[in-house]
Amino acid sequence: MSTSAKLPARRGLRPAHFVFLAWALLLAAMPFLADNYFVRLATFVAMYSALALSWNFIGGYTGYPSFATAAFVGLGSYTGAVLQNAGAPMVAAWVCATLFTGLVAALIGAAILRMKGHYFAVGSITLIEVLHQVASLWSSVTGGGEGLNVPILAGGPDFAGRVFLYAMLATLLLVWAVTLWVDRSKLGFGLRCISQNEDAADMVGIQVNRYKTVAFTLSALFCGTVGAIYASWVSYISPSDAFSVLLTLKVPAMAMLGGLGTVYGPIVGAAAFVLMEETIWAHFLDYNQAILGVVIVLLILFLPGGFLKIDYRRLWRRPPPARPAAPAASALSAAVTGEKAEKGEKADKAAAAPLATFAREGRS
Fold first, then answer.
1. How far apart are CA 228 and CA 80, in angstroms?
2. SS3 of the chain: helix, strand, coil, percent, to 5
3. Which residues of the chain form beta strands (DSSP E)?
4. CA 18 from centre of chain
5. According to a count of CB atoms within 10 Å of the terminal CB, is the N or C end of the chain lower?
6. How high is the pLDDT of residue 189?
7. d(Cα 252, Cα 41) in Å, to the nearest integer?
8. Which pLDDT score, from 0 to 100, does residue 312 have?
């Protein structure tokens, strides 16, 4: 087992924690600093950061290429919407959607996590299509292809914008706290071991199936929360929107942009992704998705470890000037080089002598 999977030391608050909390406070203050566009943008940043951190449990720490994000976001969306339409309070519907999504993920994970590599990736994508078909065909509950309306929050658009921003921020802070615990716990150590060598982790006594199921369930749990909040935010969901394959590709890309298996990599990647997406959309409306895809692929190719794996101090540090060789040292080096060349030439002649003798005897 590689030493890189060692259990992190328990430390207090690091500077990165203060930077993150200051950034979260800035997002929380956005309704008082800017207009509704920036409030909406801050809500998306918090939402995608929570999703990327959630995916990081199974994709980053465990190393399993899960593409089931949209499946659990959609499941949480429909569960919360159905409960709200049945008369449940909004927050209670969010909590129930979270728990139900986690329960479904735990049951599915016990079976699907027996697959590895490409088989697991294909199996996780299949979940999206299965739930998409269920939502499309079960029209008496989900509204079928026409979608499902969700009760609009009273109080006006400004009040609703603040409520959903703070709901997404609260979810992000909760996922962040759980990530900090996992990163420093025995669970995080076990997940790193599984990521490096699953068979070796099993041989040293790590309960591989249990650890993978916990990571998969944690990942799905918070996706369900985000999905339920999102359904209340937009007040309408449909199968094509709730179970979007594009979403399930975006989230892993965000985590890879920032750095897999880290606490802050997915957050940095999500923020960078949203800002790039908004910038490209504003300048290249017709080709924004294609251009964004090319940019993301290039960044992942040339920054395989993500933004947080770059040694910025080394990048900006100037290399020391080369010292000129001293004349005496140069003369000594030339003399030694000439002596070695002369000895090498004599050795080559000595080695070639038997071959020349053999050739002369052959002609005679």
1. 5
2. 80, 0, 20
3. 148-149, 236-237
4. 22
5. C
6. 94
7. 20
8. 57
Q: What are phi and psi of 237, to 5 degrees?
A: -140, 150
The pair of structure tokens assigned to 244 is: 């979007």
CA separation for the pair 210, 199 (Å, rounded): 14
Flag whether the pTM goes above 0.85: no
Structure-model confidence comparison of residues 352 and 140, the more confident one: 140
d(CA 30, CA 38): 7
Instruction: Please count the residues of the chain.
Output: 364
The type of residue at 279 is: T
| CA–CA dist 50, 174 (Å, integer) | 9
- Phi, psi of 148, rounded to the nearest 5 degrees: -140, 125
Read off the tokens for 97.
């959607």
| Strand ranges for 198-306 from DSSP E | 236-237
CA distances from 358 to 346, 350, 354 (A): 19, 14, 6
Name the average pLDDT for the chain. 83
Using alpha carbons only, what angle is made at residue 314 by residues 310 and 316, rounded to the nearest 5 degrees? Answer: 100
Query: What is the residue-wise DSSP string for 120-142?
Result: HHHHHHHHHHHHHHHHHH-HHHH
- Rounded Cα gap, residues 274 and 247, in angstroms: 12
Would the CA dihedral through 124, 128, 131, 137 be positive or negative? negative
Calculate the CA 130 to chain-centre distance.
24
Cα–Cα distance between 312 and 317 in angstroms, integer? 8
Measured CA to CA in angstroms, residue 131 lies from 135, 191, 322 at distances of 6, 28, 63
CA dist., res. 309 & res. 57, Å (int):
18
Q: Which of 127-136, 324-333, 338-347 has the lowest mean pLDDT?
A: 324-333
| 3-class secondary structure, 237 | strand
**Would you place residue 314 in the very low, low, confident or very high pLDDT band (cuts 50, 70, 90)?**
low
Rounded to whole angstroms, the Cα distance separating 328 from 210 reads 69
Largest Cα–Cα distance of the chain, in whole Å? Answer: 112
